[in-house]
Amino acid sequence: MTDSTMSPLRLGTRRSKLAMAQSGQVAEAVRELTGRPVDLVEITTFGDTSREHLAQIGGTGVFVSALRDALLAGEIDFAVHSLKDLPTAQPAELALAAIPVREDPRDALIARDGLTFEELPDGARVGTGSPRRMAQLNAWARTLGKRIETVPVRGNVDTRIGFVEKGELDGVVLAAAGLTRIGRIDEATQLLSPDMVLPAPGQGALAIECVAANAHLVAALAELDDPVTRAAVTAERSLLAALEAGCSAPVAALADLQADEQAVTEMHLRGVVGTLDGSTLVQLSTTGHVPASLDDESVPLRMGRELAVEMLAKGAAGLMGERAL
Question: What does each C-alpha distance from 294 to 59, 229, 231, 265, 277 come to in angstroms?
Answer without folding.
Answer: 30, 10, 7, 10, 38
